[in-house]
Amino acid sequence: MKSLISLFFILLCIFSGLVSNSQNIETLVLRPGPEVGFDAEVRTDMNYPIWYDDDFIANAWTVSGNPFLQRSLIKFDLTSIPQGSEIVSARLSLFCNTTSGHHQLHAGLNSSYLLRITSEWDQYSVVWDNQPDVTMDNAVILPQSSYQTQDYSDIDVTSHIIYFYNHPQLNYGFLLKLVEEDLYSALVFASSNHLDALKRPLLEIDYIPCQKPDTSFSYSISENSNKVSFALTSNNSTTYWWDFGNGYYSDIPEPVFTYQQTGNYNVCLTVSNECDTLTNCETVVVCSDINAKFNYDVEGTSVEFQPELSAEGIQYLWDFGDGFLSYLPEPVHNFNNFDDYIICLTVSNECNSVQYCDSISLKLFGAENKEFNLLLTLYPNPTSGMICIRKGETSLIFNNVTVYGTKGEIVLNISEFSQLNRTEGINCDLSNFSGGLYSFVIETDKGKINRRVILQSKK
To answer: In terms of pTM, does the model score above 0.70?
Structure first.
């Protein structure tokens, strides 16, 4: 009983394998017409090429009592079968030309050979005297017909098609001839020139397509190092060639490579098998460690920030804790009030993003804050362009006025004493700048005073 069960499972596995393979089999159907068909006839009594006739014939007959022999040649274009495929079977079907102009259709002792041609020929120039060579290797025999209009279906030509596929430069096609070229014998089939497409020679080829190489890959970078480990998605090909994008190479399927410098590298993997050679390239980003710590210098309510890390390819985002941001590496920010603020810097590169926060305390020295608010006025606010700075008390002396733009850059600076201390005050024209929030830092003999002004966008 156990042996029967074992046999059952063996047969089941074989059947499953056959089903699995059959799912991968594709069939190429070739049935060329007059435009692309490549076939011809040669006769002993005609010294000109016969490529236009609708007969594909093997014949020994007479004309007006004069005997002649007739053979036919045909070739199929196999280039549409993918490179590296496996030919499973090939079947040629030939159909009786029931409308032939021949004296009669299949007749006599008409067993015929279908032979592999071994030399070049051209349908527009082939005649009996220059007909190509043939070989008897794996000769296919078409048996004597049973009746005059018999079709010959599914002639096994697998070995020949495999040979032609494996040696495409030697694909010269087939020659049809009688086994015994005795008079009054004939096999009369239709050629690719026949008006009825269903009568033309039909070649059906079953093949298993070649599986193209898989060039996809993944990679991982070791923490705190430039060592990159490459991994294949599948490892079923013949050869591998890695180009690491910096002049170094490897033929190891899954290499580990250490880059000497950070940067972006165009890594290419070329994979070859019997089917094809394909290449896939991906950008591998090798990054250095980053940190977001920073230093700062305070002068009144103006603070200059400097990150500890400054390198190419790094992006900065400053959050000043008062609702304002900056993307500059080393911004200067002017706070509206003397207060405590939490400053956060986010540093990013193509591999990582880190954040660091610190607190700063801005203290007022000299006049009280409420007194500072009375020392001068800025108007109108919001403004469409012109800002007027007026002294709250006439004894106040202006030393310098600096205006910072929306990204922390200096857009205006007034330092001339005569311009700063006019009786009518200072006029600042911002009409040439884009809308947004602008910071005014006004240095006086009583200290530095900061104001924010909204410049309205132009319609």
So the answer is: no
